[in-house]
Design brief:
One of its GO terms (molecular function) is beta-lactamase activity. By secondary structure, the chain is an alpha+beta fold. The protein is built from nine helices and eleven strands. The N terminus is likely disordered.
Length: 302
């Protein structure tokens, strides 16, 4: 594929290395709590990647190995939602187009549709389920409809080289399957959510559509646990604070990316942690570290 010069330059600005071990850090005093908590996780053997930027200025507020490509589980379905939003203007793929689920789409894990009786749902409803609950069944049905290759092309067009949705959702992964559902770098993910917040992905209408689906997310167990929102009703500002986020959970993986706006400022943030999930205490330590980072973010915007 021939890439125009302007597009090539944009890709280079957001390119990241796929492998990296060197720890880089930049942290103002207001983020010392999160830096210490995430640092302790890294000292304990976890791999940590994080970044936070000011939404208005783009200034980097916090970074820890933000170039490293990490497993991000369900976070990668944001790319699917972007592709779905781009298709809604097609005559044969509108918001009310009905899609059927099949036995091949079925998968355990997160989501509501597997527990519902309806065998078919409109495209827009499936996208809402993905945004709200990381619905695995809805993800697979939408992927079958738009095609994983189309999502990959869209990802390339956005200039993302270290972030991608690699596969459909599977109950188990064999040697011929992608090892992870998705991967991403904190650097690219904060750029992506900043661009969504500014209406620069697809166009303003397309960005708003994606943000609308993401605003339904009910998983506030990680970074967002520090913000005090109701998991099921936080689409409107509360005490002057507004959140849009996406999370990913897998064995030994916790990942979150989002935009947090407050009375004083707005931030785009991303954090991914890859760890040995051998005990409940290990998992809780990861969640505590992510919450500490969230407290710093809240203090910055509020």
């Amino acid at each position: 594929m021939v890439v125009p010069a302007q597009e090539s330059e944009r890709r280079s600005r957001h390119a990241v290395e796929r492998v990296g071990r060197h720890r880089e850090s930049s942290v103002p005093s207001s983020f010392e709590r999160g830096f210490q908590s995430l640092g302790e996780l890294a000292m304990g053997g976890a791999q940590v990647s994080a970044r936070a930027t000011d939404l208005a200025t783009g200034r980097v507020l916090f970074s820890v190995d933000d170039h490293v490509v990490m497993p991000t589980a369900g976070v990668g379905t944001v790319l699917l939602l972007i592709e779905v939003a781009s298709r809604l203007r097609d005559a044969d793929f509108g918001a009310y187009t009905i899609l059927d689920r099949t036995v091949r789409d079925s998968v355990d894990g997160s989501g509501l549709w597997q527990h519902l009786q309806a065998p078919s749902l409109p495209v827009a409803d499936l996208a809402a389920l993905v945004g709200a609950t990381n619905d695995n069944l809805a993800t697979n049905v939408l992927l079958r409809a738009v095609g994983l290759e189309s999502v990959r092309r869209r990802t390339e067009e956005l200039g993302l080289s270290g972030t991608g949705l690699l596969d459909l959702v599977r109950d188990s992964r064999g040697p011929d399957d992608a090892p992870n559902l998705s991967v991403g770098s904190a650097r690219e993910l904060t750029w992506l959510f900043t661009a969504l917040a500014r209406g620069e992905i697809l166009d303003e209408e397309g960005s708003e559509k994606v943000l609308g689906w993401l605003s339904l997310n009910s998983d506030l167990s990680m970074v967002a646990s520090a913000f005090g929102f109701s998991p099921h009703a936080h689409r409107e500002p509360s005490h002057g604070v507004l959140l849009v986020n996406k999370t990913g959970t897998d064995n030994g993986v916790r990942s979150e990316v989002g935009v947090l706006r407050g009375p004083r400022a707005g931030v785009a943030y991303a954090v991914s942690i890859f760890f040995d999930d051998h005990s409940l205490s290990s998992r809780l330590s990861v969640l505590d570290g992510m919450r500490s980072f969230g407290i710093d973010l809240l203090e910055y915007v509020h």
